[in-house]
Inverse folding.
């Protein structure tokens, strides 16, 4: 085991994949000479040559569509969109072609490609550099959507994404790029669809992924002081979704809060809440609540911490999970304003 | 880089000398053109009889362009087309029955009926789609050309990519992104603008600041050329020269073929944006009778030969329609089979009226 930042773990995963599979090529804006804005591809061109990692012009739709063509000729491209919102010019290719090609050709074409997105906020990056855009992709059948929260998961999930026969939207939480953790290298791909119980607890389940996992863990620690024993489930992959782990946890604890950094309305958190109530209705002692980013465009740096769902808002939601014997309907008033 | 116009432009092009061509070749071009014509007319009819769903864009009036381009393209090359793709599929060797069945949405279609008219695809024939969104094919075609550069060196036997697009498509971003990529990376690709002078109902002149579209290659130092799309030999020659540049020099090109579509944008478009006079003029310019007359004049065909080829085409298309009609519909049980290569638990396979959850579950008081 080695201690790596998430950025280093991702870089190592790319290196190991390039070394082990001649079909893996990496390209995107400034991924070569510069090594990427966040240095995820640092040194790949130097060490493996321009054939394996190369710079592209500013042309997101071109880059993603280009990867489609390379897949058709047998490659496994890994492309980088420089920031979350820089992926929108490529949206047409992602939704209309990447996601639909396999179905359209009755399985004749597979697109084993990875689109990497540095995403979400918390680094003073303002709008279009801080978006949580995962719901757009999760809403699209044909795509797999992944978001790691630890360096070890970042390594294993990226290896799996590259090996996976389906196109993968790989969402890397920017705010966690510099977080450190133990990573086994060279390591194995981490199978998709297996959520991790990050912390066991008996009273309430917090469900999170990517940048919201450390927030949920901090909230769980703080809740201990209030006498609540909080379990934290890290989804790791949004698609495929691990219903079993989620339902098993909530049936045991009977209470559930979903924490996401994205906007709340029509977001992944809403999907999780719906799935939980469908599967755990008779086990629930309280409504499933959501804690999310506010339903406004991502704000300027001085206000971003108001936007972000922090420990206080998570704890506030936990406190409203009808802990009294008598039903507590105060949540009705606050729910009127949208997600908790 | 040179940009030029060759052949007859709305009849300013000089037609190539047919006597230099082997008669059998010319005869085969006419055979293919009549097959496409017959196929498209029957597709039109089948659409109106509700045998074909979705949208349906015909190559009527573009047969010479189709046959010229496909004659230049070798088997080892790759083809990406627009949604107006039936003729290209036929000329690329896809069986008319399987193509018609795809239009009908039948399980015997080239993509089991899941792709439809706009997404004809056959990996073996190296026809990599049929793209239903304007310009969707351009970046993938460019990527495929890049992939070819990993496989072998340039040379007369190298593989190349041909990417078709319509005149309106030259105004979208992906067109410019892709041409730039192809030029800076020296990719073996030929972009072909099939200019039928109308983006749906908007003329090229109203839509494009530079209506001589082949000149847009200049921005990317890419040779551009305009040819008479009503002449299969002229189209073939220009396409072959561009493909040779792609193979031997990895020099991408931008070719523009000039033709008219005889009908509306799609089968449901009555083309009311065309005046009566304009419609008549387009009919007068129909490349099929024009090529037929030229072949008869050149002594390649006589009227009986031509009629025999036309009847043969009718027969082939009748068989294709019969095959499509008698083929089974796709099965509902296969509806979920192709979205992902691996199982995705949350990608529900539940059909309407089936229970939301399986009945038996070990749940501890759960809803399952």
């Amino acid at each position: 085991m080695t201690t790596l930042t998430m950025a280093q773990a991702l870089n190592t995963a790319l290196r190991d994949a390039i070394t082990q599979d001649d079909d893996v090529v990496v390209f995107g804006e400034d991924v070569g000479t510069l090594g990427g804005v966040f240095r995820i591809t640092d040194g790949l061109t130097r060490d493996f040559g321009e054939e394996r990692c190369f710079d592209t012009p500013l042309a997101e739709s071109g880059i993603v569509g280009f990867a489609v063509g390379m897949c058709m000729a047998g490659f496994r491209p890994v492309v980088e969109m420089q920031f979350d919102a820089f992926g929108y010019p490529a949206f047409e290719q992602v939704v209309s072609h990447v996601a639909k090609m396999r179905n359209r050709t009755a399985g004749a074409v597979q697109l084993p490609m990875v689109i990497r997105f540095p995403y979400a906020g918390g680094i003073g990056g303002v709008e279009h550099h801080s978006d949580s855009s995962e719901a757009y992709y999760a809403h699209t059948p044909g795509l797999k959507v992944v978001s790691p929260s630890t360096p070890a998961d970042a390594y294993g999930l990226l290896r799996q994404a590259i090996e996976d026969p389906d196109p993968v939207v790989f969402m890397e939480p920017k705010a966690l790029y510099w977080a450190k953790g133990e990573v086994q290298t060279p390591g194995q791909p981490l199978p998709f669809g297996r959520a991790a119980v990050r912390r066991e607890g008996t009273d309430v389940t917090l469900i999170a992924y990517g940048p919201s996992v450390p927030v949920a863990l901090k909230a769980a620690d703080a809740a201990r002081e209030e006498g609540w024993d909080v379990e934290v489930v890290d989804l790791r992959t949004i698609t495929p979704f691990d219903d079993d782990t989620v339902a098993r946890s909530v049936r045991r604890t009977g209470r559930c809060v979903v924490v996401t950094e994205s906007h709340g309305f029509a977001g992944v958190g809403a999907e999780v809440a719906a799935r939980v109530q469908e599967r755990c209705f008779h086990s629930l002692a309280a409504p499933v609540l959501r804690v999310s980013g506010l339903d406004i465009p991502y704000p300027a740096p001085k206000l971003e911490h108001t936007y972000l769902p922090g420990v206080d808002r998570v704890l506030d939601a936990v406190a409203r999970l009808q802990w009294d014997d008598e039903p507590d309907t105060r949540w009705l008033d606050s729910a009127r304003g949208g997600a908790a | 880089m040179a940009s030029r116009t060759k052949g007859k432009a709305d009849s300013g092009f000089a037609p190539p000398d047919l006597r230099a061509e082997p008669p059998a070749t010319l005869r085969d071009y006419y055979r293919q053109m009549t097959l496409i014509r017959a196929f498209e007319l029957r597709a039109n009819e089948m659409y109106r009889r509700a045998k074909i769903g979705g949208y349906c864009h015909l190559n009527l009036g573009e047969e010479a362009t189709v046959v010229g381009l496909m004659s230049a393209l070798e088997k080892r090359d790759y083809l990406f087309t627009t949604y107006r793709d039936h003729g290209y599929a036929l000329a690329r060797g896809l069986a008319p029955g399987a193509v018609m069945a795809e239009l009908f949405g039948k399980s015997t279609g080239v993509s089991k009926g899941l792709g439809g008219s706009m997404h004809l695809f056959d990996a073996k024939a190296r026809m990599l789609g049929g793209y239903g969104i304007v310009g969707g094919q351009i970046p993938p075609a460019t990527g495929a050309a890049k992939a070819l550069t990993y496989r072998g060196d340039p040379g007369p036997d190298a593989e190349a990519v041909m990417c078709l697009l319509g005149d309106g498509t030259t105004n979208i971003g992906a067109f410019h992104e892709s041409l730039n990529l192809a030029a800076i990376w020296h990719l073996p690709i030929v972009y072909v603008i099939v200019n039928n002078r109308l983006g749906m109902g908007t003329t090229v002149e109203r839509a494009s600041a530079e209506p001589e579209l082949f000149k847009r290659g200049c921005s990317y130092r890419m040779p551009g050329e305009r040819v008479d799309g009503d002449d299969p030999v002229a189209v073939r020659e220009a396409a072959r020269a561009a493909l040779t540049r792609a193979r031997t020099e990895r020099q991408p090109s931008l070719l523009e073929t000039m033709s008219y579509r005889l009908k509306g944008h799609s089968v449901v478009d009555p083309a009311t944006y065309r005046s009566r006079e304009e419609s008549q003029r387009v009919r007068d310019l129909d490349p099929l009778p024009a090529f037929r007359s030229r072949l008869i004049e050149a002594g390649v065909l006589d009227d009986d030969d031509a009629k025999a080829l036309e009847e043969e085409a009718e027969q082939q298309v009748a068989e294709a329609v019969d095959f499509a009609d008698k083929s089974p519909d796709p099965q509902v049980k296969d509806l979920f089979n192709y979205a992902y290569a691996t199982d995705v638990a949350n990608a529900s396979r539940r059909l309407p009226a089936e229970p939301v959850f399986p009945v038996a579950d070990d749940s501890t008081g759960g809803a399952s």
User: Anything to note?
Assistant: Chain A is about 35% helix and 20% strand. Chain A touches chain B through 58 residues (CB under 8 Å).
